[in-house]
Write a structure and sequence with these properties.
Shape: globular
Strand content: 15-25%
CATH class of the largest domain: Alpha Beta
Distance between the termini: 31 Å
Order of helices and strands: EEHHEHEHEHEHEEEHEHEHHHEE
Structural class: alpha/beta
CATH architecture of the largest domain: 3-Layer(aba) Sandwich
Number of helices: 11
CATH superfamily of the largest domain: Thiolase/Chalcone synthase
CATH topology of the largest domain: Peroxisomal Thiolase, Chain A, domain 1
Bound molecules: oxa(dethia)-CoA
Number of domains: 2
Radius of gyration: 19 Å
Strand order of the largest sheet: 1-7-6-4-5
């Protein structure tokens, strides 16, 4: 019997309506549209507004979008949902449980994976094991974040890059060589000092003092993170090419984490790819953390063809990073 691969067979996405432009940021902090565009490539990002609106709202909208493209699929068919998020609706229960309830996935079990900006890649690999072993036939992988909920809009070096959004993919078994072929995943916890949220966890629970000290927001040492991201995202992308004997001309698309256009360009150059082969929507959505990779696939889905060789690459807090090689399984419409 040929090997079972986990193939992505449908994609969904959702971004909130509210557009936070660089011009609006200029009214909130000491910055300029020119600085933000030249240093990051970002022009605008989406923000989820409204009372009690969390990451699950966007995830459910993305799942509904996916179901709208697959009339043959019923919510009860989903056996497992794994959610990659850094901004769960609540500390517990897992946002995956909330999503399953709201989306009517009555037969699914689920849990969250926390790996910052590499969370979607980690989750894709984790979820694919359930398909490869034959344990499940229909698994949903969701990646999404409401980054605006942990953003200090007085911190001009950090807040300008993040936005809100969510995407999802359906994994099903494939025995003809298509699907998720390989992944290289890495982590180095010593990098946590450079990118983290100081308070709100068990080490430093919320108090009046932690709130007053703004410790519930993202803390990022941008330049240091940038240096690690440029090197590691490029290294791991080159490594997955070598391991799978892929030359630049064999690769149809690079799907990079959207943190900074300069990091994306460095990865692309290291892989020897032309700019047209890179999925990039950072200009419009900014860095949606766990949402970036599925939102790219969601937007590019109509252009994807069966047999396309796709490399996904990410770097994020932890530090965590990795690359995944997919042989795309269907023609997008
Ligand atoms: O997705 C997870 C992983 N995260 C990343 O991959 C992010 C990696 N880091 C970055 O993308 C960049 O470091 C940032 C975009 C976050 C910041 O850009 P940078 O070029 O590293 O800026 P910087 O923090 O080193 O600041 C350079 C200068 C400073 O001024 P001085 O000290 O040189 O006078 C800052 O005060 O730019 C200033 N600056 C700004 N000026 C206008 C910082 N932020 C801004 C701003 N507008 N928004």
């Amino acid at each position: 019997m040929s090997k079972i691969h986990a193939a992505i067979t449908a994609v969904g996405g959702y971004v909130p309506d509210y557009v936070l432009t660089n011009q609006e940021l200029e009214t909130m902090m000491d910055t300029t549209d020119e600085w933000i565009r030249s240093r990051t490539g970002i022009r605008e990002r989406r923000i989820l507004k409204g009372k009690d609106m969390g990451t699950s709202e966007m995830a459910v909208a993305a799942i509904k979008n996916l179901f709208s493209k697959r009339p043959d699929l019923k919510p009860e068919d989903i056996e497992l949902l794994i959610c990659a998020t850094t901004t769960p609706d609540m500390q517990f229960p897992a946002t995956a449980n909330v999503i399953c309830d709201k989306a009517g996935l009555k037969n699914a079990w689920g849990y969250d994976i926390s790996a910052a900006c590499s969370g979607f890649l980690y989750t894709l690999t984790t979820a694919s094991q359930f398909i490869e072993t034959g344990r499940h036939k229909k698994v949903l992988v969701v990646g999404g974040d409401k980054m605006s909920s942990i953003m200090n809009y007085e911190d001009r070096a950090t807040s300008i890059i993040f936005g809100d959004g969510a995407g999802c993919v359906l994994l099903e078994p494939d025995e003809s060589g298509f699907g998720i072929i390989d992944s290289v995943l890495r982590s180095d916890g010593s990098g946590r000092v450079h990118l983290h949220q100081k308070a709100g966890g068990s080490m430093r629970p919320a108090t009046i003092e932690t709130v007053m000290a703004k410790e519930h927001f993202v803390y990022q040492e941008g330049q240091t993170v940038f240096k690690f991201a440029v090197k590691n995202m490029a290294d791991v992308s080159a490594e997955i090419m070598e391991r799978n004997h892929l030359m630049a001309e064999d690769i149809t698309w690079l799907v990079p984490h959207q943190a900074n256009k300069r990091i994306i360009d460095a990865t692309r150059e290291r892989m020897g790819l032309a700019p047209e082969k890179v999925m990039m929507n950072i200009e419009r959505f900014g860095n949606t953390t766990n949402g970036t990779l599925p939102l790219c696939m969601w937007e590019w889905e109509p252009k994807l063809r069966k047999g396309d060789n796709i490399v996904l690459a990410a770097f994020g807090g932890g530090f965590t990073w990795g690359a995944t090689y997919i042989c795309w399984a269907y023609d997008g419409k």
